[in-house]
Amino acid sequence: MNTCLGDLRHLARTTAVAALILFPLGLAAQNAPAGDVQKGQTAFNNHNCSGCHGVNGEGGTGPRIGPPGRPFPDFVKNVRMPAGLMSPFTAQAVPDSDLADIYAYLRSKTSPTQSAFSADPGNAQHGKQIYTAYGCYQCHGGQGQGSVQTGALRIGPPALFLPAFAAYIRQPTNQMPPYTAKAVSDQDVADIYAFLQTIPVPPPAKSIPLLNQ
Amino acid sequence: MAKSTKKSVGRRNFLKVAAAGAAALVANPTIKAAVPAAKPRGKVLPPPMSPEAEAGMPSSHAEVLTLDRPGSDFMVDVVKSIGFDYIFANPGSSFRGLHESFITYGGNKSPEFLTCCHEESSVAMAHGYAKAEGKPVVVLAHGTVGLQHASMALYNAFCDRVPIYIIIGNTVDATKRRPGAEWTHSVQDAAAMVRDYVKWDDQPISLNHFAESAVRAYKFAMTPPMMPVLLVADTELQENPVPDGVPLHIPKLALDTPPLGDTGAVAEAARMLVAANNPVIVVDHTARTAAGLARTIELAEALQAPVVDQWGRMNFPSRHALNQTDRSHEVLANADVVLGLEVADFWGAMNSVRDQLFRTSKPIVQPGAKVISITSGDLFMKSNYQDFERFPEVDLAIAGDAEETLPSLIEAVKRNINSDRKRVFDERGAKLAKARQESLDRARTAGTYAWDASPISTARLSMELWGAVRNEDWSLVSDPAHSSYWPLRLWDFTKHYQYIGGAGGYGIGYGAPAALGAAVANKKYGRISVNIQDDGDLMYANGVLWTAAHHQIPLLSVMHNNRAYHQELMHVQRMADRRSRGLDRPTIGTTLNDPPIDYAKVAQGMGVHAEGPISDPKDLGPAIKRALEVVKRGQPALVDAVTQCR
Predict the structure, then answer these.
(1) What is the CB neighbour count within 10 angstroms for residue B550?
(2) Mean pLDDT score of chain B, rounded to an integer?
(3) Do B463 and A213 touch (CB under 8 A)?
(4) Which residues in A lie closer than 8 A to residue B580 (C-beta atoms)?
(5) Does any CB of chain A come closer than 8 Å to the CB of residue B467?
(6) Which of B486, B485, B501, B432 is nearest to B293 (CA)?
(7) pLDDT tens digits, one per residue of B53-112
(8) Which residues in chain A are contacts of B485 at CB distance < 8 A?
């Protein structure tokens, strides 16, 4: 019985991993226009993306973006209107065609930790509990809102795919301290991610009078 | 102090004449004292000492127990001649003579004595006051235990380049000390413990020495780079009569003109800035006055150059089109010329450091960019404490006060601008204006996240407060770093007194007293002083609440009560993360939540209007409005908001 359960759990985990890694990346590929890796490398350097994100998108003062952790439309949105400290790049400064090439270039990269991620679907309730217990809230805020003082990005709701999210936790490229699998299991990461997914996107700033005075 | 009756009477009569002479001198201190007919000090024979007195026994004659003109009265004359408005102090026996002279002989006016509850608070109040008013108050403290309490606050002011004027009591003559406390409160070299972080100190041994050193100390404190100074007032000097036959004189005070940058170097800086494609101006402790603020604006607008504010002072309007602080990395990464104006950590502004197991740093500014600094910081430096930060590599180092050097730089810049450059500058300015609006929009969007959260988000707290005070004549008297800088990102700062910067040395216990000190300065102008008060900071110095209530100082405080020493909590968490152990334990020793502190009750107990704790964001705005009404009536008020961490 235990063995069967173990097998089932293994199957579920394997399926989940496949879904978490392959499906989002496959979706990303589907949504991304065909880009030219070579041109993308040139554009990545010409637009000085490498200045913050490293020459291979491995991260520097900015986070790792190679391979990209989000679908192409989100990638474009984040370049045009970043959520964190990054400055926006307009279509005049970096055309959409360049972004498609840059995205293709970044997809050609591999993350040292992303492929090792393995977890069942996340439990949001447990995730909320350990989000506090493990101190995530200290820099990212109780609802993952982030802070320019701590330097922590907004993560609620998360913009990254779970594997990219997990990869960053394991091997952060900026100021964030590392959370190893020894201290926070893959399942814990998935649970935290599930909790962050429950956080709603707030109404636009223009609908809040106090923010417009 | 025992004297024969005969001798004493004569001395007292003489002292009356001497006092009258000194008073006349104070009325016009530029005139030398009209000294009564008395023999020069060197020729006066000492009175013969009676056998009883020599043996330390009571004289057979009646003791003289009173005097008309103590030395401390003259010290008060000196202090008044310099022009102080306040004394911030708690009482201490080593300056009891001076204390009594200030409140009685001096009439407790100019300066007026404000009762503090801790020497650290006295100095931190003086720190906030000096930044808001542009000049120091007098701080009094014991030479030993009082200065030990005051020392961290002095260090903050030293790092923040703020003038503090502290007078400490001490008894140098060991034979005059009472047994017990007066020995433990006496010290050979009282200033030694703080000499590394005061600009100048002295231990005068005569009243004229005190007068010269008092004026000299003020002069030094007020010359950029401004810093704390310390005077020792010996108890014998304070309590003994003004000595016979000594002409007392208070030197006239003429402040030094601030040091200016070399004209040729300023012209070269102007040429580099005008020729640059992407100049960036970094400001920090730049503007001390309204004129300083106007000058930074004028320079930036002449060049249409982006300004990156390190927020040491109110340097630049927060919503100005050229304020690119939210885009600092981008504008610095693209810069070909960077100008730093009194930047405390110029290297840190141009480089980033990763706080990981192996610390690494990367330049933000591209190689080949030219760097210019204008700072008075290079003119005076001490070696022991490392507040001078990492050495910045610059191409043109101009030693001089930035605020006072700016007029010549602006003039030189304008001389170099031709029509071609003007067109380039205008195009640059238009792009920067658009980018500024976009960054403001992004900040507002960021503020929507956790807007309705409980505990209350720091964005919500800041904007509820802004909504209440924005139509008043307001002044933010606290450092909003721990509330994610929301006020500096979203409020509309335009006037020089609307922001005073932070602690300087990051020493906790600065916030509450500095806010109160600034509120003392703002009171006479009718400004609403606004304080976002960190809970951990208030626990260092909550006696200031009583001082605020007792002296009726209008100050609106809203607690940023995250129930932790949160910066330290994050540091300990980082260690646990790095070591992959005990992730749930860093709250030990860093949090203030068991039991949660009821700051409203604490404040009420000190006589301050207070509400809270408030956890529902909907309740915060109305509570702030009620508190604001109390403040408008001239009283302090506090609202305890339970908040998100940052």
Answers:
(1) 15
(2) 92
(3) yes
(4) 180, 182-183
(5) yes
(6) B501
(7) 444 455 567 888 999 999 999 999 999 999 999 999 999 999 999 999 999 999 999 999
(8) 148-149
Cα-trace Rg, chain B: 28
Rounded Cα distance between B526 and B477, Å, is 14
Handedness of CA B230, B404, B497, B540 (dihedral sign): negative
- Contact by Cβ (8 Å): B232, B204: yes
Does the pLDDT of residue B456 top 60, yes or no? yes
Q: Contact at 8 Å (CB) between A144 and A132?
A: no
3-class DSSP string for B28-69: CCCCCCCCCCCCCHHHCCCCCCCHHHHCCCCCCCCCCCCCCC
What is the number of residues in chain B?
A: 646
Q: Is A101 helix (H, G, I), strand (E, B) or coil?
A: helix
**Tokens standing for A159?**
């913009």
d(CA B496, CA B132): 9
A128/chain B closest Cα distance in angstroms: 14
CA gap A8, A24 in Å, rounded: 23
Q: Are B69 and B18 in contact (CB under 8 A)?
A: yes
Per-residue pLDDT tens digits for A26-42: 444 446 788 999 999 99
What is the average pLDDT across B564-585?
97
Contact B232, B201 (CB under 8 A): yes
Which helix (H) or strand (E) segment is B374 a member of? strand B370-375
What is the C-alpha to C-alpha distance for residues B480 and B494, in angstroms, rounded to an integer? 17
Dihedral angle, C-alpha B187, B193, B196, B201, nearest 10 °: -30
Question: Which of B333, B584, B646 lies nearest to residue A134, judging by beta carbons?
Answer: B584
Partner B, chain A 149-208, Cβ-Cβ below 8 Å: 149-150, 154, 156, 174-175, 177-180, 182-184, 202-205, 208
Give the tokens for residue B411: 């003039």
**pLDDT tens-digit readout, B331-356:** 999 999 999 999 999 999 999 999 99
Kindly determine whether residue B356 and residue A142, on different chains, have CB atoms separated by under 8 Å: no
For residue B449, the chain A residue with the least C-alpha distance is A145
CB–CB contact A149 B485 (8 Å): yes
**Does the beta carbon of A61 lie under 8 angstroms from any beta carbon of chain B?**
yes
Quick check: helix, strand or coil at residue A189?
Answer: helix
Query: pLDDT per residue over B14-41, tens digit each?
Result: 344 344 444 444 444 433 433 333 343 3
- Please give, rounded to a whole number of angstroms, the shortest distance from the CA of B297 to a CA of chain A: 23
Q: Where does B381-464 show beta strands of DSSP type E?
A: 396-399
Average pLDDT over every residue of B584-590: 97
Binding-face residues of B in 38-57 toward A, CB within 8 A: none
Asked if A48 is an interface residue toward chain B (Cβ–Cβ < 8 A), one would say yes
- Residue linked to tokens 């840059």: A102
**Residues making up chain A, counted from first to last:** 213
- What's the half-sphere exposure (Cβ side, CA atoms, 13 Å) at B14? 18
B109 touches chain A (CB under 8 A): no
How far is it, in rounded angstroms, from Cα A70 to Cα A159? 7
What local confidence, expressed as pLDDT, does residue A114 receive? 59
With H, G, I as helix, E, B as strand and everything else as coil, classify residue B591: strand
Between chains, do B354 and A174 touch, taking CB under 8 Å as contact? yes
Cβ atoms within 10 Å of B505's Cβ, excluding its own: 18
- State the amino acid at position B165 in one-letter form: Y
Residues of A in contact with B566 (CB under 8 A): 138
| Full DSSP string of B451-515 | TT-SSBPHHHHHHHHHHHHTTS-EEE-S-GGGGTTHHHHHS---SGGGB----SS--TT-HHHHH
Q: Which helix (H) or strand (E) holds B640?
A: strand B637-642
List, in order, residues 6 or more apart from B343 with CB less than 8 Å away: B282, B283, B284, B285, B310, B349, B373, B375
The whole-angstrom separation of Cα B132 and Cα B136 is 10
